[in-house]
Amino acid sequence: MSSNEIFNRLTVLLDDNHARYRVIKHPTAGRSEEVAKIRGTQLGQGAKGLVCHVKGEGFRQYILAILPADQQADLFALAKQLGGTRASLASPKEVSELTQCVFGAIPPFSFHPDLKLVADPLLFERFDELAFNAGSLECSVILNTKDYHRIAQPELVNFRRTE
User: Fold this and answer.
1) Could you give the CA distance from residue 106 to residue 51 in angstroms, rounded to a whole number?
2) How much is the pTM?
3) Which pLDDT does position 2 carry in this prediction?
4) Which fold would CATH assign to domain 3-156?
5) Phi, psi (5° rounding) for residue 92?
6) How many CB atoms lie within 10 A of CB 97?
7) Which end of the chain is more exposed for a tag (fewer CB within 10 A), N or C?
8) What is the dihedral of CA 154, 2, 91, 132, to 10 degrees?
9) Nearest in space to 158 (alpha carbons), one of 77, 49, 39, 103
10) Where does the pLDDT of residue 82 fall: very low under 50, low under 70, confident under 90, or very high at 90 and above?
11) What's the Cα-to-Cα distance from 93 to each of 1, 35, 53, 57, 119, rounded to whole Å?
12) Which residues form a coiled coil (predicted)?
């Protein structure tokens, strides 16, 4: 599956569920701050996706963890809340296999049966719209926050760093 296929799958999902969203094509930007400027959005509106694996005694789960782009993840808190003892970021190869995307282009939706979707609750508390790369570093979606929550149905897990 290519990034184009991920984009198409995403827009079909959003259309089928009557989501309020718009697509923005833009030059590639490497950092969240740069892409927020290009999109005309606040940094905190960005939905940053981290592919992690959480492990523990007899427990192993791949996680797509979504949090606001102006926050940092606490992987230990993520592991603990999901029943594991440790968590780490997945390798670029694992990210590609599980999301069909490159780092930075992962939308906040899981299309893989082995990739569990979780989101930090702060994602839903500050902005009416979320912005994210949609399978490509040159294409973003700005989506109504309530529509994202309704369609994606992520498990809510507090895992942002608080210090």
Assistant:
1) 9
2) 0.93
3) 54
4) YbaK protein (3.90.960)
5) -55, -35
6) 15
7) C
8) -40
9) 77
10) very high
11) 14, 24, 13, 25, 23
12) none
- Residue 3 has what pLDDT? 60
Give yes or no for residue 30 having a pLDDT over 80: no
Mean pLDDT of 68-84: 96
Q: How far apart are CA 117 and CA 145, in angstroms?
A: 16
**What residues does each domain of the chain span?**
3-156
Q: Give 76's contacts (C-beta < 8 A, 6+ positions apart).
A: 86, 87
Contacts of 77 (CB under 8 A, 6+ apart): 158, 159
**Per-residue pLDDT tens for 87-145?**
999 999 999 999 999 888 899 999 999 999 999 999 999 999 999 998 888 899 999 99
| Residues facing 143 on adjacent strands | 21, 130
Query: 120 is written with which tokens?
Result: 């930090």
In a 13 Å sphere around the CA of 96, the CA atoms on its Cβ side amount to: 5
